[in-house]
Please model this.
Amino acid sequence: MDLSFNAEERAFQSEVRSFIARNLTEEMKRATALTPSVFSDPDIGMAWQRALHANGWGAPGWPVEYGGPAWTPAQRWIFETECARAGVPNVNVMGVKMVGPVIIGFGSPEQKNFYLPRILSGEDYWCQGYSEPGSGSDLSSLKTRAVRDGDDYIINGTKIWTTHAHHANRMFALVRTNDGPRQQDGISFILIDMKTPGITTRPILTIGGDHEVNQVFFDDVRVPVANRVGEEGKGWTYGKYLLEFERGSGIASAKLREGLKAIADLAESDLTGRAIDSPDIAARISEVEVDIDALEMTELRVLSALQTGQNPGAVSSILKLRNSEIRQAVTRLGVDVIGHDALAVEPMRPLYKLNHEPATPEEMLTVVPEYLNGRAYTIFGGTSEIQRDIIAKMMLGI
Amino acid sequence: MDLNLSDEQKLLRESAERFVAGSYDADHRRKMANDPLGFSPAVWKQFAELGWLALPIPEEFDGLGGGAIDIGILMEAFGRGLVSEPYVATVVLGAGLIARCGTTEQKQASLPKVADGSLKLAFAHSERAARFDLAKVATSATKTAQGWRLSGSKIAVLDGHAADEIIVSALIHDHHGPSGRIGLFVLPATADGLAMSDYARLGGGRACNLELADVHLPEDALLGDGHDALPAIEWAVDRTMAALGAEAVGIMQTLLETTLDYTKIRKQFGRPLSANQVIRHRLADMAMQVDEARSMALRAALKVDSPPTERARAASGAKAKIGKCARFVGEQSIQLHGGMGVTEELEVGAYFKRLVAFDTLFGGSAHHYARHAELGRRA
Model:
């Protein structure tokens, strides 16, 4: 057993570092640090996607024939870790990490040829149409209906919690095409152009003050049948495949560590009257750091298993659960560290383009919004309760 | 970067698991709990034959030169069977300190005998007034014309009753008075002036308190050359915490499996306990914490030879986190067994007690989070 990297991996690490040094501008870095929502705004995130794509790194997890870089699991680890350390923007994961793998796995040759290059280049910006007002954890009860009319489907219904629907030009959605004996049957996976007539988007403000999610309405929206991925009625299978990617693709510990470091820096600063001098705060910082250490080791164990072709199994639910819980612990700690400054929450967005002097130092601007928005981590992508159900079923067999 | 076991390590794990499954059952454990020795000399002999006593000892002293990962593999299997042989006291602590601090002659005199099973050791360091502070030693070692004179009290000496020789830490007093240096002294268990009161340790095995009243020792009883032994003590305790962490993982894994089986069989309201979501989620949390503990034990083992601060933070982090997980998994195992979990009729309690002992040994979670924080302070 060995935690250290070999010569090739160290060379790759240098390559990633010099790529970041060449391409990450101060403006992107500041904008990323001052983003209190889950995703970067598209102008920042897509600029980074274009830089990655120009270097052949637009889609780290894709097979090489579709433009992936054919990295080993260790290389992916190094890449993600270096990106987190440097504070690079979040790219549009709904494209690269979510719909991309589904199109690669189940799409037609025409769909692959059309969509995949546009995801890589950043030309297309995707959003995810899964949840509905009446279908959250019980996702397969979804009611948005697609009725066949010649070579088209006509879609009626509504989707909710649609991240960046107001920026996206495309949506992948689960819609009901048939009423099967089980509610999981009769669901299809459809790609929708957001400019199609009949689609309206309503913004939803989160408690942190950010416009990140939306509700999307479909009124007699006509979508070609050719936009269906895979077979009619098999959408649930494809959707679950995608959710496993969403949960398991996480190399999350490096980002958590940077988040904690920002809080620890504040705690050691005069800006907070050196909050760290309180033994309670110091011990809690250590407690969260140790939790991150544990998550990192679990990620590395999974990575080692992947390198030898083993299947990590339900551990993706453990990673999702722990990542979300630790992230919340980091943001909770942040609020406690900044003390009275937690009262002054800046309402203007984006925080990196304020045209007035905020009430708190810049380092504190995201702390409370991140804590408030961060409550969503244990809800989206399958709530913690659903993850525990999965662990009980898949790992423990009950 | 590779965290997969080597082929040799897989074999070690298989043989350790097979041995524990074959030699340790409830009857054996009950017998050992009531035995004045607390372990089986026959089993100890088998440990020697299997090469486990030689495992971490350097090859030039008849050992196998194994590392902390190998010890962790063995300890995890020991945890699954609640093994009560004095492995930690003799091999991890005792032989570890001699290998680190001893002169070549001292190593030659002791280590091959540990490896072949003919010498058992113990380490007497803790004192009541020191709590978990490894640097605080009141026991004194005064230089005499013939050698050394030791006086003081020690508590919680793991398996001291079984040891042929006991390594005692003491503050060195030279002709100027207290030197500020801690020395490690090797005492025969039969030394004049040494009084021992031993007891059955919580969770299995034994421990003892020592009274040293003017114990006279020869010059060469001091391990090494008289440099301050505190860094070596910290090193040995960090390694021991990594090993005990792996043992705790084995104990927790057994408790998880036992509890899972029980909730599938036990029926109330006409259905198995495991059909209830509140029970399923509790078990999912237990499984998650066992997994986190496994990651931390591995991490501590991988970092035992790192620079002191990194090593100590990894060891304290692991001790704190695994202790917290152990209390949760242990307490919930009893809870989910209902009234039966609180009785001596099941073994859940015995496994739980070993976890409580683990959490307490060398300091609990609060102590180690504080040590982790202190060591992490940037100037």
